[in-house]
Amino acid sequence: MPNHIVDSQHRQPSKDWCPFAEHLAEALSVMEEDQYLIISSKTDNRYVQFSAQGSFGMRAETVSNAFLDSAHRHSDEDLLILRSFGWNDPTSGPGVPPTADPDGSPNHYREWAAPVDYADVAITAVRTFIEVLDIAAPGWLQYAAFDNDDREILIPGLGLKKEAVA
Length: 166
What we know:
22% of the residues lie in helices and 19% in strands. It has helices at 17-29, 76-84, 118-131; strands at 35-41, 47-52, 58-62, 108-112, 141-147, 161-162. A hairpin with a 5-residue loop joins β2 and β3 (58-62). It is globular and about 35 Å long.
């Protein structure tokens, strides 16, 4: 897995990304249907989120410009990188209920069919953090995990701080 984590902007990624990608793949592989994991920057609204969909596989989303402040908006180059990683462009805007756009999202999104290649999901997420969201190292991240009933799920194997619940 580690050799697939490169930065197209020629920065040296943190050595911590490779073990993080492995831990993320493990965590994703044990998620049950209707469980969700959001990994976000500790300082702002940059994130990748995952939804376990049982026999339908896994869905992931990463933040779109509709939810980013001007300092973190995706450039045209970022959008090209997202597409090269297989992310789909947003299909709706903020506030559109999921029932109105069940196969789309106001975020960039991607689906993996079952059986899910969790290493591929993890590598896609890590490369998105590094190359598009400009996260220098996993230590800059936190997580929230929960199910459809809003019950929190602990994932200590990620090695990330659990997001404080407001």
